[in-house]
Amino acid sequence: MIRELPSLVIPGVTIDVLKASCATCSMHQLCLPMGLDDKDMERLDQIIGRRRKVARGANLFRIGDTFQNLYAIRLGHFKTCQVSQDGVEQITGFQMAGELLGMDAISTDLHHCTAVALEDSEVCEIPFSTLQQLLGDMPTLLRHFHRMMSQEITREQSVMLLLGNMQATQRFAAFLVNLSSRYEARGYSPNTFQLRMSREEIGNYLGLTIESISRLLSRFKKEALLRVSNREIEMLDPPRLKAVAAGSQTCN
Amino acid sequence: MIRELPSLVIPGVTIDVLKASCATCSMHQLCLPMGLDDKDMERLDQIIGRRRKVARGANLFRIGDTFQNLYAIRLGHFKTCQVSQDGVEQITGFQMAGELLGMDAISTDLHHCTAVALEDSEVCEIPFSTLQQLLGDMPTLLRHFHRMMSQEITREQSVMLLLGNMQATQRFAAFLVNLSSRYEARGYSPNTFQLRMSREEIGNYLGLTIESISRLLSRFKKEALLRVSNREIEMLDPPRLKAVAAGSQTCN
DNA sequence: CGGGTGTTTGACTTCAGTCAAGTTGTGTGG
DNA sequence: CCACACAACTTGACTGAAGTCAAACACCCG
């Protein structure tokens, strides 16, 4: 039931003709349909477009693409990155299932960042103009959509805090604690998880170099804060890690 | 016509009982009513609450306050700041006339930052629950509101870029270029303006120290990029300053 | 099994921070 | 209007956290 639609071939992006359904999606308590009753959820389902598979490394959209759809992540992980005028890339976020991609494009109808799948992933395509019509007569959906946009603003403000006045150690601890709580919210173990991004990507996101990330991992390992094996992370002492993230524990 | 309402005394915040009017406000082409026809603008006007004067240094709202209103700046300048767990303050933005304050509070109904007036200022109070009803049947307003939220997301992403991988020189040049373009959009001179914030506040925003800002100002002065007199800035060579901001000019 | 990418570790460098002293500006009360 | 006090800013000397460069090592995949 999966085929490449010849009219819309994007490398690594295939289109699943099975319609997505919010009601049966495990993410519906975190995603756009949160709090909707069955009738409203049905209406939302009807406007949601194709389900797309995005292969690891493939772009879902790129800076400068015209904006048509928001994307809800069903499965997998993405990174979003900006490029400065001198061509340097900055990762602005890592997104996981239940999160929405593309909200920064609403302002100008052009995407301001590129979204790349960190592993084979699946998204629901949400045509924005149709969504907007629906928002007009579904106050619950409108409210939740605003919450999601606002949440994105809040998230970015906390990254500004992190980049603006935290030390490397604190940044990295905060990063791990943040991932942990997001996995927990999705029903996964908060203490053991797989990093979906490379050391280089973590460093880029945190405003640090790959070497610094590597050294920090080694230090946290030595301090018995973490067990690390490649991209597998186990938090051995979450309270202390949180204290390091909060800046109340120096961690020599 | 200006009096302190005894029921709502906030230090430095007085309430002007004259109703605000979007139609006569010089900011209506940048602010929420952008693009509305006369009839719709009238409807928006009717839901807009009091006009408030906020004295220099006074808080419009604080972290943790319950969210009731968005605020549109009619006049003056604000800063918004976050506080990290260890009590360090991070300025997340400087806002000027025509910009909206409080959008980060929608997600949890609590303000996530504190807004402080940098000079005597005036804002329009926009009760959010009333606004939301209006958004339901004014698609043009809905669209523009989404654009403004999205713009805030984009703005923050570009600050992340700045904090994440620009050098001090580049950060500061980018900051000045950004201010310049915002003054230009408001019909003021893009090349001569008054800084409304202290060196310390600039440093905090840019993730640098007050000493670094001072040294950068001196260097830009010596390089004939700026004329500086206290908080008065004159850009002597905007193209070169833009080149420094873009990272294409090193500026020894 | 070999090649390439991704990661770790060490030695050295540098940019921006810290500390300290001095200067200029501002606002208040005599 | 001046004098004083305090805040804001500037400048210099020194320090240190994180970056750069380089080499070695580990893991993955054909």
TrEMBL record, chains A, B:
The keyword Transcription regulation applies. Keywords: DNA-binding, Transcription, Transcription regulation. Pfam families: cNMP_binding (PF00027), HTH_Crp_2 (PF13545). Residues 32-152 form the Cyclic nucleotide-binding domain. Residues 166-239 form the HTH crp-type domain. InterPro entries: cNMP-bd_dom, cNMP-bd_dom_sf, Env_Response_Regulators, HTH_CRP, RmlC-like_jellyroll, Tscrpt_reg_HTH_Crp-type_CS, WH-like_DNA-bd_sf, WH_DNA-bd_sf. The keyword Metal-binding does not apply. NCBIfam families: PRK11161.1 (NF008365). PANTHER family: CRP FAMILY TRANSCRIPTIONAL REGULATORY PROTEIN, FUMARATE AND NITRATE REDUCTION REGULATORY PROTEIN. This is Fumarate/nitrate reduction transcriptional regulator Fnr. It comes from Duganella aceris. The gene is fnr.
